[in-house]
């Protein structure tokens, strides 16, 4: 059992020596009062296979940590419970596995809420109280079940930095993060980080190339998640939808017409159909958000910290508004901007809890362009992956932001068969047109192929005018045989 | 002693020029070149890298010339030629270079240099089989190693983009590939251009002899021709049926016809090119060569014709077979959007107030190391990978803001690097000259550099009144001799009659 347990989650392992002599005894948390609220989770998961999208990967087991955050509800990391087929929870010092289910998951901030299928299991367990943001240099304790062990591990560390970081689970979202000097190891991701008996963070990731650097999700992110789901569903983070650059150069400020003492950032790009679209303009200088000045480096004063201005939007729920003061054509104007979730942003993120969409025709495998498609190149996909595909994923949205609003379909691979055997074959190619129709969704491609009554299916690829043609009748006739031959249950998943 | 040997050799050469050659003959055909070279620092284009030395071979050819590989004498600052038994070198100079075929012709002004050397007789054609001798000088010893013919095949030149036949041999020579000549029965059949373990790649005699013929009249030199189009295999009967070709698929499918290429104005995308110069091309791009069997189609014209020749071609277009004429041109390397090489030109650059501008070219991309095609930034590689179709009249080169030399004048911009520039002061720029000119015309007292959308910053602004002084201070601070080195000549102008068909 233990050998089969693949530990994929991350945990914080705090140094027991760093700064120990300087610690006040009052920092120590009453262990016994906390233990019953601590949870170990084992997730048997299975993901889609983006190279053979009709397949799924073998089942893998991984373990993580969690804690009771509300009566009957466990909080853990999204990455602990994602792609779950069976989720078991173990209450500290209780060897019984209790089947559990995910009630809310936020892949964009790596948090999730879990309940046991038998609600009475958690009934009598007291939630851990939630605290605030720990101060720099203050001591914290981490509770969890590292390295697949079933016994509780408690470690200590110092808060060494507070700033925003990319949350690796989604790969694209940045939120406020608290860094400790403790090393983080797989296994107690989702475990509470505690100070003075209160949870001040949820351990979630580590810096691979740095020593003694572990990260926790601070309670402002935790609280925001809890507020978001209070209406019964998780909506996610709204986003201004802009890219901005600093105004540190005096000439840039002078040209923009900024007054002495005024500061801000310049709007460099606006995502189509985002919160800012139609409100902000390229070249606007964003001076204030909700009356708080934006510095020339893009930060805002926030208590003892300076945080990136975008984090202010992070703290809001979708549908709420912010007031932006911008400098535009020498005038200062206030804009009420309703914060929207920008779903196109998710197109760049890692996918979880979904199986890949695909369509197979005449042995040609078509799939929407997602990060997982790039990752089929293996560990070195960033440098070794197909450059045209990497360009389509990362660069084309900068040149043509509207492409983010639609599917881009990839001709992923070919399942060899006489009907396609002579094709001058271009794997990992972006499809531009099929039978003269521009492809904006996978469904467009299916429709263009299946509604075609002409003699040929003509597939034009996006770069360098590459061309594939199939004899339609022969291709239609071969479809069933190819699926049978390659053991593919269905020709599509939409 | 020396006289006696010369006499002896003379006898052999006179009596049996094509007979089995002796070491003595090779001693008179082959010289060693010591090349001291120093390339430009592509990262700091105002300075040069540390000098190096390479030892290569050259072969004596008719007309008191030495023939060697162009890339191996590129960036040479000092050349020395050593011949048999001599420790005192002579000083050759480069007479003529064709980088597309990677060949250089050198000469030595001192006529006595050639007195005891003999031009290597050229083989009539590349052998299809047999054992060859690969020869070089090393530590005053003549090394002559057996080398077996493996195959002849058409490939892209390592130094240019021209495609022509290369001979591949399995050699016993260790560490070869440095322009070492290869002989069969005393006749030159090629020179090595590279060697990977025991496998050597050789520019064959057909290419050498055409080069030598034309290089002797450098003023009227005609380039080796290239088709210059993008094409794909035409093996798929479904494609050919769709395009209206009956019977077995044959010919190649044309995809894009770049500006300035031989095909420009003649070929169109989705033409099937059936034949060139009367020689039929099969669906994988091969034709039947009378001696070497199936070779890729560039072998039809690359040595039998020169730029400027008109050849008949046959294409299938819109279901009709057309007989057309095509004027052959060299590979338009100067028309690449991201040129694969710059030749002898030092890297052009322009420094304005600490902003370092340069053109994007492959020599710069190569600063990302051996795996530059993987490791260089994607936004730069995309120009190289996506825009293989080349320049258009509206876009000649990609201009980069390569880096920013830190100073108080450029505060806030110091972390910016390798950003493609779209315009300067509102003027679209596709050459350093245009950047230079646009900087003469600030708008309302400011210089505004706007980047292409794939940069993560939209624009940066500089105080125009302080630019000149800031540039002067930065040059002084960073020990930079000149603020700019503009290209010696603009990219070639193939005219507007054919803007390319992409």
Could you explain how this protein is built, in words?
The complex is a heterodimer of chains A (494) and B (502). Chain A is an alpha+beta fold. Chain A has 3 domains: 11-231, Thrombin, subunit H (Beta Barrel), CATH 2.40.10; 242-339, Pdz3 Domain (Roll); 356-493, N-terminal domain of MutM-like DNA repair proteins, CATH 3.20.190.20. In chain A, the strands form 6 sheets. In chain A, strands 23, 24, 25, 26, 27, 28, 29 and 30 form an 8-stranded antiparallel beta sheet that branches. In chain A, strands 2-3-4-7-6-5 form a 6-stranded antiparallel barrel. In chain A, strand 13 (198-206) and strand 14 (214-218) form a beta hairpin. Chain B has 11 helices and 30 strands. In chain B, the strands form 6 sheets. In chain B, strands 23, 24, 25, 26, 27, 28, 29 and 30 form an 8-stranded antiparallel beta sheet that branches. A 6-stranded antiparallel beta sheet of chain B has the order 4-1-2-3-6-5. Chain B has a 6-stranded antiparallel beta barrel with strand order 7-8-9-12-11-10. Chain B is of the alpha+beta class. Chain B is flat, with a radius of gyration of 26 Å. Chain B has 3 domains: 2-219, Beta Barrel (Thrombin, subunit H); 225-330, PDZ domain (Pdz3 Domain), CATH 2.30.42; 336-485, N-terminal domain of MutM-like DNA repair proteins, CATH 3.20.190. Chain B is 16% helix and 35% strand. The longest helix of chain B is centred in the first third of the chain and has 14 residues, at 2-15. Mean pLDDT of chain B is 91; it is low at 1-20. Chains A and B meet through strand 15, helix 5, strand 16, helix 9 and strand 29 of A and helix 5, strand 15, helix 8, helix 9 and strand 29 of B.
